[in-house]
Amino acid sequence: MSRNHAGDTNGFYVTALGTGASTLSNERASAGYVVHVDGDPTLVVDAGGGAAGRLSDARIDLTTVDGVFLGHLHIDHTADFPAIVKAAYQQGRGDRPLPVYGPAGTPEYPGTEMWVSRLFDEETGAYGYLSEFVERYADGDLALPVTEVDAIAGQDDDVARIYERDRITVDAIPAVHGQIPSLAYRISHEGASFTFTGDYASKTENVPRIAHGTDILIHNRLLANDVDPNDPKTNLHSTARSCGRNAREARAGTLVLSHVSRGDPADFETALETIRDEYDGRVIVLRDLIDIYPDGTVVDARENPQTGRTGSGGGDGPDIVVIDDRSG
Ligand SMILES: [Zn+2]
């Protein structure tokens, strides 16, 4: 397994914009992340409500970002997508297209192409005004080319390489989130990688497969320990035991828990004990505005000396919880 250190990752790290779920009651924005490469914001993963505001908090400029990767199209993963698109162009993206990657649709659920068109189509989109606005006031040309990825899980799915550019690759595999098309992504750079489970019910081996040997496994939404196995929620999300097992089977360097709906990290205690039964490595309960590196190092995004930001804030919001691995 590749284990890098903060000093020599060439600035490959993830900023957590939003580590919350839908309820917006625990000092966390909904899901959203920015992947930095060579210290530059390069890829966006999810854009839930509040994520756009966190970009401003962390002073991250998306003008030159190369792509937005949406795990699925639920509100808590996409509500701030329009705000991010607008900001990227208004801040000076010019004629540079902003590629969007996301799940293909099914008869019941729109795919990413239809979803983007319903937002931004000049004739019929809810925000159809934006093309003309960008042309007139931002001296640019709004372009959101969409790549759809098959996102309905079978029993034995292959990992698909969907992006390859400047020594960065993105792989995808269908996750299982009820009937909703949903993807897990693995983003790799020079042997180091972050894997985002997306919303995943652990009903296949797909996440351990795509995450095999990953440095950081960012695992979404933990169900309560005592959830009834017949509760419909178990078709949408993973139990603590499944999270721990996924991390162990993947041989992940660090398990990062995110998309948190609980109010207080103390509520995690029993869930963390269960995870500990399954997985020996480093476990982190993430919070917003944290930069996380492939070796599991965490730094406040507003005070990260590598980005030149020092002393600009931090300290509020829920505490980050870090449990070191047993071997270390
Ligand atoms: Zn979700």
Structural write-up:
It contains 8 helices and 18 strands. A hairpin with a 2-residue loop joins strand 2 (32-37) and strand 3. Helix 7 runs parallel beside helix 8 (269-278). Helix content is 20%, strand content 25%. It has helices spanning 51-57, 75-78, 81-93, 112-120, 130-137, 206-210, 240-250, 269-278, and strands at residues 13-18, 32-37, 40-47, 67-69, 100-103, 146-149, 160-165, 168-174, 183-189, 192-196, 216-220, 222-223, 238-239, 254-258, 282-285, 290-292, 298-300, 321-323. Mean pLDDT is 91; it is low at 1-7. The chain has an 8-stranded mixed β-sheet with strand order 6-5-4-3-2-1-16-17. It has 328 residues and is α/β, with parallel strands linked by helices. The longest helix has 13 residues, at 81-93. The protein has one domain (8-307, 318-323): Ribonuclease Z/Hydroxyacylglutathione hydrolase-like (Metallo-beta-lactamase, Chain A, 4-Layer Sandwich), CATH 3.60.15. The relative contact order is 0.15. The chain is globular. Zinc ion binds next to helix 2. Zinc ion is lined by residues 21, 74, 76-77, 199, 259.
Blueprint of the fold:
Blueprint lengths: L12 E6 L13 E6 L2 E8 L3 H7 L9 E3 L5 H4 L2 H13 L6 E4 L8 H9 L9 H8 L8 E4 L10 E6 L2 E7 L8 E7 L2 E5 L9 H5 L5 E5 L1 E2 L14 E2 H11 L3 E5 L10 H10 L3 E4 L4 E3 L5 E3 L20 E3 L5
Parallel strand pairs: 3-4, 4-5, 5-6, 10-11, 11-14, 12-13, 14-15
Antiparallel strand pairs: 1-2, 1-16, 2-3, 7-8, 8-9, 9-10, 15-18, 16-17
Bound molecules: zinc ion.
